[in-house]
Amino acid sequence: MKAILTGLLLVCSILAIAQTDDFFTIERRIKDHIKNGRWDEVVVTAPDLVIADPTKGNGYYYTAMAFLKLNQPDKANEYLAQAEPLADEELKPLLSTLKNEINQYREANQVLELAEKQEKQGSKRAADEWKKLWELDKLKTEYALNAVELYVEQKNYPQALEILKDPAMANDPGAQALYKRINSTPEMTKINGYNEALLLGKQNMKNGNYSTAISNFSTALRFQPNDAEAGSQKKLAEDELAWQTTRKTNTLEAFESYLKGTTLRNHKAEADEIVMRALIRFGNKAASENNFKDMEYYFGKYMKQYPNGSENTAARQTMCDTYQAAADKEKDKKTAFAQKQSIAYLTKVKTICSSTPALETAMKTANKKAIRYGRPNRGFIAYVYDSLAPIGLSFGTINNRKVGMYITVRANENLFQGNSFYTVNDQGMLDGSVFDDVRPTGETRTSHFDGTLGLTKKIAFPLWLYAGGGINYSQLSIQVDEYNDSGRFVESEWIKNTDQQFIKPVVEAGAIIDVGGFQLRGGGKMIDFKDIYYTLGVGFSFRRG
After folding, report:
1. Least C-beta-crowded within 10 Å: which of 74, 108, 222, 277?
2. Which CATH code fits 2-87?
C-alpha cells in the first residue's frame, strides 16, 4: 500500500513539473510574438497558457494586450476583467499598467475623433486637440505637426513654437527648420519685441526708474495693444510715479489729487492718513479765526471722506458750536432769509450732534418766523358751485399781509340753451311769431347768471375770508308747440317771457382754505337780500411774483 501511494505522488510531481515546463515554454513563445509585433499569433497562443495553468491570469493578460494592439479595446477589457481575479502579486502591476493603456487608448481615440471633426468644421479648437493627442504619445510627431500647421494658420505662433522646441521634436529636421522660419515672421518679431520691452520695464521698475518703465511698457503695448500683463505693469509704474511726485510736492492738494487720480492708488492708506491730519489741522485753524467757509470745507470734507475717523467726535463738536453761534446771530433778524439761515445752521447742529428740546424749540420758532416773514402772495383759480348756479369760476389773489381781490361769475346750464327769436309776456301775448297757433306746454325753465367782485383777507394761515357783491340776472322761458294753418304740429320751441326777466343785487361771503397750492372754499350768497344759497368751491393757487 505504501508503495502505491509513493508511486502516485511521484507521478503527480512529474505531471506538475511537465505542466510548469509547458507554461513557461508557451509564455516564451508569446513574448517572442509580442517582440515581433505578431499580435494575431498572441491572440491564438495566449489561451494555451490558460489551459497549461488555469489558476493563473497570464493567458488572459496577454490576450487583453493583443486585442488592445489590434485596436479592439472592448475585447481587451473583457479579458482584462477575467485576468484580475487570478492575478498574483507579479501580475497585478502589469494589469494596472494595461488598464491605464486601455483608458489612454480610448481617450486618445476620443481626442483623435474630436480633432478630426473640428478640423473638418474649421474650428480653432482643432489645433488644441491635436496638441493634446500628441502629448498623450510624443512619439507620434505627425500629431504635433498637425497642431503646428493649424496654429500657424491661426497665426498663433507662440503655441506652434512651443511644440517645435519640445525635446521630442529635436531630432526632426523639418520641425527645426519650421521653428526658424516661424520665429522670423513679422508676427514673431512683434512678440519678441514685446518680450524684450516687458523685461526692460520690469528691470526699471526694480530700480525705481518709473518714467522709463512706463515707456518700456508702452512699447510692449505697441507690439501687443491688448496685453493684460503689460497693461497691468504700466498701471503699476504710473501709480508709483504718481506717488513719488506726490511725496516730493508734499501739499494737501497733491495728496488729494493722488487719491482722486486714475492710478491704482496702492499707497491710498498712507495718503489718507496724511490728508486726515491736514484736514483737521486746517479745520481747527479756520474755526479759531471764525472763518466759517473754510471750517465747513475742511471739517465737512474730513467727515465725508472719513466717517469713521478718530477725530470725528472733536470735529463734530467744533462744527456744532460754530453753527450754533451762527444761528444765534441770525435768529433775531426779522427777515425770512435770516430765519431760514438760522434754521439751516440749527439743522446742521441737529444732524451733526444730538438733538435737544431747546434745539427743537429754536427750530420751530425760527420756522414759524420764516413762514410768517416769507409766505408769498398767491393767485388762484377755482371752480365754484351753488344750488342756483352750479357752473362757476372764481379767480383772484390771496395775499400774505395785504388785502386781495377776486372776481366770481356763475351760471346754470339753462343760460347756455337757446331760445326762439320771438317772445311772450305774462298775458300770453306773442311778439314776433310767424305762427298764429302757438300752444304752451306748461314746461318752464329759468336761466341764471351772476357776477361778483370782492376782497380776500388772511385770518391765520391757511384761512382767508372773502366777501363781495354784484348782480344776479334771471330769465324765465316757457316751452310752446307750434302748429301751421292746417292745424298740424310743426315743432316745439322755448321762448322768453319778457315780464319774468330780472336783474337783482347779490352779496356773498365765505372762507378759503389754501394749503400747498390746493384750495377749498365754502360760504353763501344772498340775492336781493332775501334768498340765500350755499356755495362751495375747489381750485388751485400759484405763487405770484
Report:
1. 74
2. 1.25.40.10
Are the folds of 190-260 and 378-543 the same?
A: no
Residue position matching grid coordinates 301775448:
429
Asked whether the beta carbons of 494 and 418 are under 8 A apart, the reply is yes
> What pLDDT does 9 receive?
42
- The string of pLDDT tens digits covering residues 19-51 is 556 888 888 888 888 888 888 888 888 888 888
β-bridge partners, 430: 424
Write the pLDDT tens digit of every residue in 284-316: 999 888 788 898 899 889 988 899 989 998 998
Residue ranges with strand state E in 99-152: none
262 or 147, which is more confident: 262
CA distance 221 to 224: 5
> Are β-strands 489-515 and 423-424 bridged in parallel, bridged antiparallel, or unpaired?
parallel
CATH architecture, domain defined by 378-543: Beta Barrel (2.40)
Residue 158's nearest CA partner among 133, 179, 137, 130 is: 179
How do beta strands 430-431 and 423-424 pair?
Answer: antiparallel
Tell the residue number behind the cell numbers 479745520, with chain if given: 283
- Where along the chain do its domains lie? 2-87, 108-184, 190-260, 268-374, 378-543
What CATH number does the domain located at 268-374 have?
1.25.40
Q: Rounded CA gap, 330 and 344, in Å?
A: 10
pLDDT higher than threshold 70 for residue 463: yes
Q: Averaging pLDDT over each range in 185-189, 348-352, 393-397, 460-464, which range is the top one?
A: 393-397
Class of the CATH domain delimited by 190-260: mainly alpha
- Which carries the bigger pLDDT value, residue 275 or residue 335? 275
Q: How far apart are CA 306 and CA 272, in angstroms?
A: 9
Distance CA 111, CA 129 (A): 6
What pLDDT, on a 0 to 100 scale, did the predictor assign at position 199?
93
CATH number of the structural domain 108-184: 1.25.40.10
HSE, CB side, 13 Å, CA atoms: give it for residue 461.
16
Which residues on adjacent β-strands are paired with residue 406? 396, 454
CB-based burial label for 12 (10 Å; 0-12, 13-18, 19+): exposed
Predicted confidence band of residue 390 (pLDDT cuts 50, 70, 90): very high
Which stretches does DSSP call E strand in 461-488? Answer: 463-483
